[in-house]
């Protein structure tokens, strides 16, 4: 199965899979639906909109590359498409904030970055 | 029917020059002697892992090093829940008659054997390699995420969390083997360096060197009569991104199964040993287990409920937060302390009544859970 490129391969996109059989959205890519086991999955691109589920601002990083970025916020976002994802976000984000994704470079890699909707 | 017949524990902190095998050997020697047994009596070995000295066959490496040729041996890996998961397996192996005396052992020179950064990087790998680790999260950040949501949903404050660090430190102050014994206050915790919000340095357990071991046997081998009444596990996810809702976390599932397996109720519990990698871990688990109502664990700490002289003494050795955390051995110290309390050997830390104990371990990011009831008979 050809893997379409998303941010984990340096392309500005958040992708997910949608089970053709049970409709469950799935963020961690795999060759089957983890909810029902069906193998027919549609690749979809998320719109980048969502709601902050949890947030933590990292002040103590463990590598020289990541330490250059402190403090940086790690967020869990519940996307409009119905799956949860981890990303970076603005340091002042709070739980429940409506957010939109853009992309930024972190330790030399492309990562999704969520900001509060005006 | 199985019994914990012997326990062994080193001090936690710095053990300059000692390897993981050295620390495992020290603890094993103590546990076997405590059980009144000889090396040759041990026919089963379960061990954890060492992030400093990874090996695909650590149990046989240890057996050869220690001088035992067991009939059953392998390693077990469930993160912080490994110690109790090994105890559960030992219980079933002994109960099924596969072996008579299982040595359960964990130990690691995690503090002096590698840099703190290396340790943090190694542990962050419990995250998803593609979808989480590239974002630069740390273990405190994974738990910081969980904490932010739990505090939001149940009205828990950072000062509430600080109470758990203060309690664990107060308990550690009376144990000569604890890594940190200087008393601290809520203000000290609040003023400690930010690590991953809302967690600050004193909300986090340290990295330690140390070793712990115990022996699980079919019959008592000495005066100690600590019976494993029943235990159970629950595994709901690995990665925090895939964690279920807070109301569906694994601790509630494993404790429900453990109650069923043991026929025990929370009201029977006289002593508690609960995993405390971070203050939030302890707060959440106490509430998940039913030792406090939602959002009320901190007020129970303030009222003295979990103190040595309280209704349910908790982690009287100081827990991971202050006794220390050497990896697999970390939470095994909880069981060693429980055993000492249940056999009236805890000295100046002795509680009034530890006849029934509840132990709970957590691995990953509240991913894997083991609950266990012990009873003095």
Q: Any overview of this molecule?
A:
The complex is a heterodimer of chains A (118) and B (377). Chain A has 118 residues and is mostly beta strands. Chain A folds into 2 domains: 7-45; 49-116. Chain A contains 1 helix and 8 strands, in the order ββββαββββ. A 5-stranded mixed barrel of chain A has the order 4-5-6-8-7. Chain A has a 3-stranded antiparallel beta sheet with strand order 2-1-3, with no helix packed on it. The longest helix of chain A is centred in the middle third of the chain and has 4 residues, at 64-67. Chain A is globular and about 45 Å long. Chain A starts with 14 loop residues before the first strand and ends with a strand. The mean pLDDT of chain A is 96. Chain B is of the alpha/beta class and 377 residues long. The longest helix of chain B has 16 residues, at 139-154. Chain B has a domain at 3-113 and 208-217: 3-Layer(aba) Sandwich (Peroxisomal Thiolase, Chain A, domain 1), CATH 3.40.47.10. In chain B, β10 and β11 (368-376) form a beta hairpin. Chain B is 36% helix and 18% strand.
What topology emerges from the helices and strands here?
The complex is a heterodimer of chains A (118) and B (377).
Chain A: E1 15-19, E2 25-26, E3 41-45, E4 49-58, H1 64-67, E5 72-79, E6 84-89, E7 98-106, E8 109-116
Chain B: E1 3-9, H1 20-34, E2 44-47, H2 58-66, E3 72-75, H3 82-95, E4 101-109, H4 116-124, H5 139-154, H6 158-172, H7 186-191, E5 194-196, E6 199-200, E7 209-217, E8 226-235, H8 250-262, E9 271-274, H9 279-289, H10 297-302, H11 319-323, H12 328-342, E10 356-363, E11 368-376
Parallel strand pairs in B: 2-3, 2-4, 9-10
Antiparallel strand pairs in B: 1-7, 4-7, 5-6, 8-11, 10-11
Helix pairs in contact in B: 6-9
């Amino acid at each position: 199965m050809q893997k379409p490129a998303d941010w984990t391969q340096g392309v500005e996109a958040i992708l997910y899979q949608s089970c053709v059989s049970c409709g469950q959205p799935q963020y961690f890519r795999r060759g089957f639906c983890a909810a029902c086991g069906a193998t027919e999955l549609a690749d979809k691109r998320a719109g980048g909109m969502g709601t902050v589920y949890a947030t933590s601002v990292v002040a103590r990083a463990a590598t020289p590359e990541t330490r250059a970025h402190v403090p940086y916020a790690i967020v869990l976002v519940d996307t409009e498409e119905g799956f949860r994802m981890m990303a970076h976000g603005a340091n002042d984000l709070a739980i429940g904030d409506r957010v939109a994704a853009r992309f930024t470079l972190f330790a030399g890699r492309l990562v999704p970055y969520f900001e509060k909707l005006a | 029917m199985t019994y914990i017949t012997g326990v062994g524990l080193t001090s936690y902190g710095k053990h300059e020059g000692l390897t993981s095998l050295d620390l495992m050997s020290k603890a094993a020697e103590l546990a076997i002697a405590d059980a009144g047994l000889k090396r040759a009596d041990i026919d089963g070995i379960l061990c954890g892992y060492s992030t400093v000295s990874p090996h695909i066959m650590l149990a046989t490496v240890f057996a050869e090093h220690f001088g035992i040729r067991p009939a059953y041996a392998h390693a077990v890996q469930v993160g912080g829940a490994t110690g109790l998961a090994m105890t559960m397996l030992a219980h079933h192996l002994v109960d099924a008659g596969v072996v008579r005396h299982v040595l359960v052992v964990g130990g690691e020179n995690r503090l002096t054997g590698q840099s703190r950064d290396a340790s943090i990087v190694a542990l962050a790998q419990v995250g998803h390699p593609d979808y989480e680790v590239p974002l630069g999260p740390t273990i405190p950040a994974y738990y910081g995420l969980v904490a932010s949501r739990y505090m939001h949903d149940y009205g828990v404050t950072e000062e509430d969390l600080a109470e758990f660090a203060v309690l664990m430190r107060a308990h550690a102050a009376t144990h000569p083997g604890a890594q940190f014994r200087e008393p601290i206050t809520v203000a000290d915790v609040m003023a400690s360096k930010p690590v991953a919000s809302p967690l600050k340095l004193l909300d986090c357990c340290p990295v330690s060197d140390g070793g712990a071991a115990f022996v699980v046997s079919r019959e008592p081998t000495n005066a100690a009569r600590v019976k494993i009444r029943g235990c159970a596990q629950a595994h709901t996810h690995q990665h925090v991104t895939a964690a279920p809702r807070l109301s569906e976390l694994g601790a509630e599932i494993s404790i429900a199964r453990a109650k069923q397996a043991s026929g025990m109720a929370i009201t029977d519990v006289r002593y508690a040993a609960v995993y405390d990698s971070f203050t939030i871990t302890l707060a959440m688990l106490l509430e998940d287990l039913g030792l406090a109502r939602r959002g009320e664990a901190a007020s129970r700490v303030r009222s003295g409920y979990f103190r040595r002289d309280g209704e349910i003494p908790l982690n009287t050795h100081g827990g991971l937060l202050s006794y220390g955390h050497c990896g697999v051995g970390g939470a095994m110290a909880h069981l060693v302390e429980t055993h000492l309390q249940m056999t009236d050997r805890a000295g100046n830390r002795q509680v009034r009544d530890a006849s029934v104990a509840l132990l709970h371990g957590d691995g990953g990011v509240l991913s894997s859970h083991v609950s266990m009831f012990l009873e003095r008979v």
